[in-house]
Amino acid sequence: MTMIKQTLLTVGNAKISKGEAFGYLTKGLHLAPANLSGYEVCRWRSKGCTMACLNTAGRGQMNSVQDSRIAKTKLFFEQRFDFLTKLSKEITSTIKSASKKGLQAVFRPNLTSDIAWEDITNEDGKTIFEKHGSTQFYYYTKSFKRMKTFIDGELPSNYHLTFSCSEHNEEKCKMVLAMGGNVAVVFRNQLPETWNGFKVVNGDKSDLRFLDNQGVVVGLIEKGLAKKDLTGFVKEGINS
Q: How confident is the model at residue 125 (pLDDT cuts 50, 70, 90)?
């Protein structure tokens, strides 16, 4: 086993930090999205979300940050067990440090990726959800199959998914909402009150998606490169 020295989990962005006001400390895993590292980590991505990816938002503009994310992604694929051992240690230490601050640690293992973590096991055959059974994990996915599995209650109970809308999957989004799942939609300039007849909640208030009511649209205002989107990935902020 090779010791990994690189820190895997980061606090992420300003919105993630907003969770502390609600009593939660979120840390997440920033991998290099799409196939930037030579390995594909967003197999359900669309052209629009690839172009608008928040990978280059904030500190992501720095070469050193990009290099770090690429290095982490290569470690994940090339030293899987070492990576998972280090990840588990960081999760445990984060839980302890959050507890000292009176906060509950929660985790987003896919900040800039869409990996099926329920299929990723360590040498002992356990997933991170099993290894940290009382800890909340959450993220967004564009996989309809995985989202349906989540809605059907077939994923670990400490694992929450929000479906992610693109320029190509609006019909699937409606199906997810009809089944009681939540869908994140990026809007231009303002949030509508409804989208396709479903209530829109402000997803920019915090990143704590596991606290959202069921069957709602999680509205997000476009940021960074998404402001230039012409693919249809960003929706108009009008009631529908």
A: very high
